[in-house]
Write a structure and sequence with these properties.
This protein has about 350 residues and is α/β, with parallel strands linked by helices. It has 2 domains: about 220 residues, Spore Coat Polysaccharide Biosynthesis Protein SpsA, Chain A (Alpha-Beta Complex), CATH 3.90.550.10; about 80 residues. Helices cover about 40% and strands about 20% of the residues. It is built from 12 helices and 13 strands. Helix 1 links the parallel strand 1 and strand 2. Helix 7 runs antiparallel to helix 8 and helix 7 packs across helix 10. The chain starts with a strand and ends in a 5-residue tail after the last helix. One of its GO terms (molecular function) is glycosyltransferase activity.
């Protein structure tokens, strides 16, 4: 059984495969590389088979997003190819670098409780800057809003080595996610109802409640184009982010927490963000936020069942950031991770 399987989920991403697969193969360190294709219509499968014979292709029957697609692909590898000890799930628009794998595998081997890890994620187009999707490891505040070392809302830090350490974080990015295979399958993988966006944060939250750890590795760096499947300005991305954030908050918030008070505060703050979209005339994003909230309320019975099931399995509380990053960023003017955290530690 190989130590690591490199698994790239693809949907109509042939240009990215052409551009970035050669780099992945050149830096695979002998580990098998898979492309799991989600019923693409752009001849991605034929292109990979014709041009990259060393790549193992998994043809999925339909597009079920990041969450459902990776669940199926990793289950296929486990049942048909004997599995692997670890998986890494780089987006198709990720440029890897020499030596990106070894430091993270060393961290896994040194820490049996580590279930998830990510490298530093920098921007492909502005290479000195951290990228939106994960930067140098993420956290979640007391209202369920996410932020990263190196990226808070729309403020992106340059990488000056300030995050070159290896440390625990709350969540690791799905843009280039390393996972311990045993834990992934034990937990049932991602919540497929998320489709895409925040499913990795939800999963990181769940695995911590089971006693596992999430880490970031400062000795590994990759570059991310971002928005390869859904551009940042796409209203459907707005819908998924707002909806899935509420899904995640309701499912995972501790039993003794002030859950519905937080949901009401989120309703207010999401309304404020809708006004910001109104200010710039992005009407479809306002509609997306409204639809996200109604989708959340409509799914409450199922979310409640999931919440109760997770609480029965829970061993530990995952440590959330105890303040509001919305307040700190927009009111107090604290724009960087260091300014926000101050003397606080997690």
């Amino acid at each position: 059984m190989p130590t690591l399987a490199i698994v790239i989920l693809n949907y109509n991403g042939q240009p990215f495969l052409a551009k970035f697969l050669p780099t992945v193969l050149a830096n695979a360190d002998g580990h098998p590389v898979y492309v799991a294709d989600s019923a693409s219509t752009d001849n991605s499968v034929g292109f990979v088979k014709a041009n990259f014979p060393d790549v193992r292709v998994i043809e999925l029957p339909r597009n079920e997003g990041y969450a459902g697609g990776y669940n199926q692909a990793l289950d296929y590898i486990r049942t048909h190819d004997g599995g692997a000890t670890y998986y890494v799930l780089p987006n198709s628009d990720i440029e890897v670098t020499p030596g990106w794998i070894a430091p993270i595998l060393s961290l896994f081997e040194a820490n049996p409780q580590m279930a998830v890890c990510q490298p530093k994620i920098r921007s492909y187009s502005q290479r000195e800057l951290f990228e939106h999707a994960g930067a140098a490891g993420g956290f979640v505040d007391w209202l369920g809003y996410v932020f990263c070392r190196g990226r808070v809302f729309a403020t992106f830090e340059a990488d000056h080595g300030q995050y070159d350490d290896n440390r625990r974080v709350f969540w690791a990015t799905g843009a280039c996610l390393f996972v311990r295979a045993e834990v992934f399958h034990q937990t049932g993988g991602f919540d497929a109802s998320f489709f895409a966006h925040m499913e990795e944060i939800d999963w990181c939250w769940r695995v911590q409640q089971l006693g596992y750890e999430v880490w970031t590795c400062g000795q590994s760096t990759v570059f991310h184009v971002g928005g390869g499947t859904l551009p940042k300005s796409n209203p459907h991305k707005t819908y998924l982010n707002y909806r899935n954030s509420l899904f995640m908050l309701y499912k995972n918030w501790p039993a003794d927490g002030w859950l519905w008070g937080k949901i009401l505060l989120r309703l207010v703050l999401d309304g404020v963000s809708a006004l910001l979209f109104l200010k710039v005339g992005q009407w479809r994003d306002i509609s997306a936020i409204l639809r996200a909230h109604f989708a959340f309320y409509g799914r409450l019975p199922e979310l409640h069942r999931q919440r109760k099931a997770l609480q029965r399995q829970q061993k530990n509380d995952a440590r959330l950031y105890p303040r509001s990053i919305v307040w700190q960023y927009f009111v107090e003017g604290k724009k960087t991770f260091a300014a926000i955290m101050g003397a606080d530690t997690l």
